[in-house]
Amino acid sequence: MHQNKPWVVFFVALVWGVVASAQLQVKDAWVRAVVPGQQGTGAFMTLQASENLTITAASSPWAAVAQIHNMAMEGNVMKMAAVDSLALQSGQALTLKPGGYHVMLMDLKEGFAKLTQLPLTISFKTANGSTQTVTLQVPVMANAPASSSRAGGMDSKDHSQHMETMKH
Ligand SMILES: [Cu+2]
Fold first, then answer.
1. With 50 as the cut, is the pLDDT of residue 12 above it?
2. Tens of pLDDT along 35-81?
3. pTM of the full predicted structure?
4. Domain count of the chain?
5. Higher pLDDT, 20 or 148
6. Residue 9 belongs to some domain of the structure
7. What's the 5 CA to ligand 1 centre distance in angstroms?
8. Cα(149) to centroid of ligand 1, in Å?
9. Range of the domain at 99
């Protein structure tokens, strides 16, 4: 039979860190590792849309609360605040990164500190008003990936060597 629906199903590319739906591509996602008992952490990624759309929510079974946050300087104080949504312009990448936009995960479930991958669902509204989701398996890392560019030959195993607890 001719099944001509290449975009209907979400797919996980073989290249590390790329997940896409028809309208939204997510690259280089990572979530900051926590120590046992830690209540919150942040998830980061690069989002790119093939049409104008709006990120409306994030969720994970490992966090009771997930919000989209922005960090910005207010005077000389770094402030973090929840935003209702994130608008993506067609074709323009938006990077969620430490010190800027991030997915804030709070009220973490017990056992989060042992995760090496975090399931994370991003919800978005398309231009025609339908709500869609894309679910990622986000690597848990102590620090931002060294090369979050599109360089080939990523060896994510190497990054796990850097998981010693850091003091901030
Ligand atoms: Cu935050």
1. no
2. 999 999 999 999 999 999 999 999 999 999 999 999 988 899 989 99
3. 0.76
4. 1
5. 20
6. no
7. 38
8. 24
9. 26-138
Instruction: Identify the burial level of 160 via C-beta atoms within 10 angstroms of its C-beta, where 0-12 means exposed, 13-18 middle and 19 or more buried.
Output: middle
Question: Residues lining ligand 1 (ion), CB within 5 A?
Answer: 69, 80, 104
Distance 66 CA to ligand 1 centre (A): 9
Residue 23 Cα to ligand 1 midpoint, Å, equals 26
The whole-angstrom distance between residue 81's C-alpha and the CA centroid of its chain comes to 17
Residue 155 has pLDDT above 80, yes or no: no
Can you say how many angstroms the Cα of residue 118 is from the centroid of all Cα atoms in its chain?
10
State in Å: Cα 99 to ligand 1 middle: 9
User: Which of 27, 41, 5 minimizes the C-alpha distance to 122?
Assistant: 27
- Asked if residue 20 has pLDDT above 90, the reply is no
Whether residue 82 is contained in a domain is answered as: yes
Asked if the structure places residue 8 within a domain, the reply is no
User: Would residue 43 count as lying in a domain?
Assistant: yes
CATH number at residue 55: 2.60.40.1890
> How far apart, in whole angstroms, are the C-alpha atoms of residue 121 and residue 21?
12
What CA dihedral angle connects 161, 164, 167 and 168, to 10 degrees?
40
